[in-house]
Amino acid sequence: MERQRRKADIEKGLKFIQSTLPLKQEEYEAFLLKLVQNLFAEGNDLFREKDPKQALVQYMEALNVADYAASDQVSLPRELLCKLRVNRAACYFTMGMYEKALEDSEKALSLDGENIRALFRKARALNELGHHKEAYECSSRCSLALPHDESVTQLGQELAQKLGLRVRKAYKRPQELETFSLLSNGTAASMADQGTSNGLGSIDDIETDCYVDLRGSPAPLPSPPTMPLSLLGH
After folding, report:
1. Residue 103 has pLDDT above 50, yes or no
2. Cβ atoms within 10 A of the Cβ of 231, count?
3. Which of 17, 132, 202, 233 has its CA 20 to 30 A from that of 114?
């Protein structure tokens, strides 16, 4: 039911922005933000349903609406735009469009240079394109940030072998030392948990959590504005 409502809101929203009907600026900004968020969420659902082509359509539409908003003096959150690029890169990569995946990954990093998923997507795309040295540099940065992530480890080892580097296993601290360290100062975190302690989950997954307010406020977003019956097809 919720997804059907979201699809209906997307359809109505896309019809509305193709019109020239006036709207108060604050309502207009919130409306555009919610439309992009809905497209983002729909793309995520489609990607998880193993339909990267249709997910790509949603992410592309969201980025097009974001460009439209910018042309009309409405700036959407950089975090949201970055996540859209990261997820679209995942679609391109899954579809074997590695140049496009690399392009979106680099644009995501230009929005957020610390986005590990964007860096990982870049490394994978570079690897597929044969740029193994540059891919290894990106992969190494991912390894330092997420030393226990299986996907990162596998990519790093693959690239090391291609470059003729010595592959070594990672050091793992004994559980007793972790427990003792935690009891001693109350600040140590288990190294084994670092892959998920930053909220990423698996680095190979898509970005989620797009519901941020334009002004950073946690207040709920308004519903799309009421539209003329002629636009709704009634």
Report:
1. yes
2. 13
3. 132
